[in-house]
Structure formats: structure tokens, C-alpha cells
Amino acid sequence: MSDLQVIDAHTHIMRSVAHGREAHTYYYGRGPATGHPVEPVCYGTVDEVLELMAQTGVVHTNFLNYTWSGKYYAHGQYTLPDDPARRALADRELRGRISQRIRDNNEWALSVIREHPNLSFFCGIDPVVMSPSELIEEVADKTARGALGVKIVPIDLKIRGDDRRLWPVYEFCQARGLPIYSETSGRPGAPGRPAYFGEALAEFPKLQLIFSHMGHNPEFGEGADQEVVDLARRYEGVHADVSLRFTEVTLGQVTPGQMVAHLRRVGTDRLLYGSNYHFVEMHHPDPLPPGGEPTRPQMTQTKAALRVLKTLPLTERERDQLAGENFKRVTGLKAPSTEGVGTPS
Questions:
Q1: What are 230-267's pLDDT values in tens digits?
Q2: Residue 119, SS3?
Q3: Which domains does the chain have, with CATH numbers?
Q4: What is the maximum alpha-carbon separation in the chain?
Q5: Angle at the Cα of 123 from the Cα atoms of 211 and 165, rounded to 5 degrees
Q6: Of 149, 278, 155, which is closest to residue 209 (Cα–Cα)?
Q7: Is 209 helix (H, G, I), strand (E, B) or coil?
């Protein structure tokens, strides 16, 4: 087990402490008014992630470069003029500004992976604010320069996997073997249901599609979770990650045996290990110590998920597949650099 090489396929790295604070206060809407601390328990900066890797021995971390552009666009609508002509002009300007923010964030991500060879990323896009040509130009540019694939977040974009604005991206990525990573959820009304990608997969059957959270159905193994199983059985390019799901084991909501049985239903050759740092830590903050202030950065849930990976009753082959072999196969990542990797604490 000490030789297990773990690649964390699903994290979120913020550009700065201020950006991490924005994720906490703006994107998640947390603070004293909602019973949360003023500051998040972690900020998700590059330094935090590198320290996490040093402490846990994770050899490579992939981050999903996520600009909450859907929220920016929805809130920007309140600022548009009432006059139809002026509104249309201002709307185009708003879309342009948000599209530039997406591009800027992807450029920053490229600078990070140039500096840190044990980090990689998937570039973010938004088919609501970006035109088809802008989408393809951004994907082509960033993947040519180092991004491993594309990231979409239906819950933020407010679109489903069968939205025709995604078709140019599907076509481009299938033709080039580029994987697309999508957030999923089985909660009522969630646009990220895996089943909503069925039409796209029927038209693009060789598409490499990775479902975050393995469906993330409120009732384990049912609904959206089963949809992942069904699609994985029909299409060779369908994969999923276990981000947020091993937390169900650590919290006692799912037994190790139940988890292994479901992993095998999906197929251990289709699954990627992912922690969802730093979002998972914000979702499950540690109890406050006597002084009232949390110890930062919190890494509790991420380390617990790693322990689940290492202790689930899997075969050695299954564990190796999940820990990193599948990620390397899907993305084409070469053997990860172990420079700066520490001994697990």
C-alpha cells in the first residue's frame, strides 16, 4: 500500500486568498448571516494544495478550473438598462467581460502548471456567454498549451447536458480525444443529471465524458448514481470520479461494502479518485476549537477520503486503477513527477 501512487483528479485551486474568500462568501453565500465564520476554513491556494500533497504523498493533483460565470451573468442581469436597444448592447458587453474572465482564469492556470509539473488542469468554458467560435477557440488554445481537457458545471451554467450550445464542444472534443469533465447531481431539478447527456452520447458515442461525484444522488446507488452505471455500460468513454462520495463512508452514511459494490457496478476501470479539495472542506468544517477560530487550512475531509481509498476492500488491481491508472489512461498524463512529494502523515 505504501507504493500506491495517488492522483487526485478533482480539486479546485483558487488564484489567491481573496479568490478563495470569494468562493466562500459570494459563490457559496456563507458568512455570519448564515451561521458560518467570516473566513473559510481554507482558501484553496496553490500553496495550500502543494502542502496538502506534501503531507499526504499524493503524486499529482489535477484542478478543474471553474469560473462561476453563470452566477456572474445572472447577477449582472440586474444591472442592465430597461431600454431594449441599450439592454442588448449592455448584455453583449457583460457577456464579453465574463468571457474574458474565463480566459484570464485559464491563462492563470497555464502559468501554474508551467511552474509546478505535479499539477494539471481542465479548462473552464461557458456556452451561455461564449459564442460557438469562442468556445472552440478557447478549448483549442488551452488544450494545445497544456490543459488536459474541458470542465463544465451545469448547476452554475443553468443548462443540461443535452443543451445544443454544447454540441460544438462535444464534436471538437470527440474528434481529438479530449475528455470533458461535468458536475453532476441527482437532486430534484438539478440540471446536471447524467441522463441528460444521453442524447449527446448517442450522437457522439466516442466522447470521453467524466461525471463528477459519480452521479451524487441523495439516495446512494439510486437515481443519478444508477444513470452513471447505465451510461458506462453503453459507452466506453463514460467515466466518473468519487469526489464527495468517500465522505459518505467517513460520515457513516454508506458502509465500505456498499461503496465497493457500487464502484464495481460502475466499473473500477471507469473511476477516478478525486477529493474535491477545497470545496469539500467548506462543506464539512471541523468543529470549532475552544478559542472559537478554526485551524487553517483545514484538510480533514481530504485526508479522510484518502484513507477510504487505501482501506476499502478492493483488490490491488482495482485500487491501482482508481488511484491513478484510469486518470493517466483517459488524459494521456505521463508518469507523474514525484518532485516535492512528501511521506504521508
A1: 999 999 999 999 999 999 999 999 999 999 999 999 99
A2: strand
A3: 7-331 (3.20.20.140)
A4: 65
A5: 70
A6: 149
A7: strand
